[in-house]
Design brief:
Blueprint lengths: L2 H4 L9 H12 L2 E12 L6 E12 L3 E6 L5 H9 L6 E6 L2 E2 L7 E5 L10 H11 L4 H14 L15 H14 L4 E5 L7 H17 L3 E5 L3 H7 L2 E6 L4 E7 L14 H14 L25
Parallel strand pairs: 3-8, 3-9, 6-7, 7-8
Antiparallel strand pairs: 1-2, 1-4, 4-5, 9-10
Helix pairs in contact: 4-5, 4-6, 5-6, 8-9
The structure holds adenosine-5'-triphosphate and magnesium ion.
Length: 301
């Protein structure tokens, strides 16, 4: 608790329209159920629990963000959801059916640019469609529509190296959405972008999400980004990883950058900051060895 938090409302306080929206969300079907999930790496004395007892229901068209200290298992968790990693215990249900292995029903966008450099922007978006058996001319038309949706229709014939970082990520989003996934899984997708581009991408993502029937599971380290984008925010702690709190975002929709300084936004951000920096939330700080790199004398230590 610091002086500024005294003047802020309780982050759990919701205006009637926000409370009504959460009520409607809860009445929607559960798209993704994470059931008592655990992940251990290694065996014997080297065995390590990354997280355990993680359970969560995500409703159709909900926007969920996960935040938490580095190493608490966020990426591992969503890699299991994506089917890229196996759970040690528990299970993942998509539309009520257990998932095993990756599938087109889950789209992924990562921080690193994962486009095929030898394919044009349009061919990148067509890739999954053709893999799924769609004929080339239909895939071509579909890809063009998705590129229009992310505002890159004019760049259909360009190659990835001709695009900026933000544009590449928009192609990655178009490519993931073209397969019509039930859930879009995003692991720090804007983490490598400069602040201004990042802010624009957040706006684009909300616009796209409003037009498409897709549920989003989004990992970020950026508290503003989590407050700006999400319906609910999942806060994870480390050692072992677990869910500390699930917060219903009190900031009304539609969102705009002007809301960054509203009392609800600041109260939510303050709460996230308090939990993330609480003792025990993060991994014990590693003691780094002292390595002397200069001859400058004792003061360098
Ligand atoms: N293949 C693996 N083998 C062994 N340990 C692993 C493996 N993958 C991840 N881990 C460990 O699991 C823990 C969680 O990693 P993960 O990448 O899920 O964390 P994170 O919350 O996404 O962190 P960050 O915020 O830094 O991206 C880390 O301690 C990591 O070393
Ligand atoms: Mg990660």
């Amino acid at each position: 608790m610091n002086a500024s938090s005294l003047a802020l409302p309780d982050y759990r306080q919701q205006r009637p329209e926000v409370a009504a929206r959460f009520q409607r969300i809860k009445e929607r079907p559960v798209v993704l159920r994470i059931e008592d999930l655990a992940k251990h790496f290694g065996s014997g004395p080297a065995a390590r629990t990354v997280f355990d007892g993680v359970s969560l229901d995500i409703h159709r068209r909900e926007f969920i963000s996960i935040i938490g200290a580095s190493g608490c298992g966020k990426s591992t968790l969503i890699r299991i959801v994506a089917g890229l990693e196996e759970a040690s215990a528990g299970r993942i249900l998509l539309d009520g059916k257990p998932v095993s292995g990756p599938g087109p029903d889950r789209g992924m966008v990562f921080q690193g640019y994962t486009l095929f450099p030898w394919r044009t922007v349009k061919e990148n978006v067509m890739f999954g469609l053709e893999m799924g058996g769609m004929d080339r001319s239909t895939a071509d038309a579909e890809a063009r529509q998705w590129l229009e949706m992310v505002g890159l229709g004019k760049f259909a014939e360009s190659y990835p190296h001709e695009l900026s970082g933000g544009m590449k990520q928009r192609v990655a989003i178009a490519r993931a959405l073209a397969n019509n996934p039930r859930i879009l899984i995003m692991d720090e997708p804007f983490g490598a972008l400069d602040a201004l581009t990042r802010c624009k991408m957040q706006g684009y993502l909300l616009q796209i999400w409003r037009k498409v029937d897709v549920t989003i599971l989004f990992i970020t380290h950026d508290l503003d980004e989590a407050c700006f984008l999400s319906d609910r925010i999942i806060v994870m702690g480390a050692n072992p990883g677990r869910i500390i709190e699930v917060i219903e975002n009190p900031v009304p929709r539609p969102r705009s950058v002007e809301q960054f300084l509203t009392p609800e936004f600041l109260a939510l951000k303050q709460r996230l900051d308090d939990i993330i920096h609480a003792p025990g939330a993060a991994e014990a700080e590693e003691k780094l060895p002292v390595v002397k790199l200069t001859e400058a004398g004792d003061e360098v230590e």
